[in-house]
Amino acid sequence: MDIELLVVPDCPNEGPAAALLRQALDDLDLHDVSPVTRVIDDQREAERVGFTGSPTFLLDGRDPFADPGSAPGLTCRMYRTPDGLAGAPTLGQLRQVLERSQLPRRQEGGV
Fold first, then answer.
1. How many whole angstroms separate alpha carbon 105 and alpha carbon 75?
2. Which residue(s) pair with 5 in the sheet?
């Protein structure tokens, strides 16, 4: 599984989002998965990768938290959580999307 954390330069949520992602991966025994952080600092690049705000989590190139109709742009991103809007999803929400993306691999006998 390829995992990227896309951020704008100096994103205040980059550190917390990266720590949250590492915790979710560790909780799912995916210790060998190494996420890559990529800085998006150009509107054309944001449009090319479908970047709708910082931080964005991509799992195999797909944004599991995509909000239909969101326009690509160099902006902060807000996530809907059980406690309201936040700068990152909850640990439970992130674990859930990681688990869903792993189901086909686990059923085939992979990690």
1. 34
2. 37, 57
**Single pTM value for the model:** 0.89
Strands (E), 18-62: 36-39, 56-59
Q: State the angle between helix axes of 14-27 and 91-107 in degrees (0 to 180), rounded to the nearest 10.
A: 40
- CA atoms of 14 and 57, how far apart (whole Å): 11
Note the pLDDT tens digit of each residue in 82-99. Answer: 999 999 999 999 999 999
At 25-47, the pLDDT tens digits run 999 999 999 999 999 999 999 99
Q: What number of other Cβ atoms are within 10 A of residue 27's Cβ? A: 14
Amino acid at 37: T
Please identify which residue in the block is written with the tokens 């705000």: 53
The contacts of residue 19 (CB under 8 Å, 6+ apart) are none
The greatest distance separating any two alpha carbons of the chain, rounded to the nearest whole angstrom, comes to 40
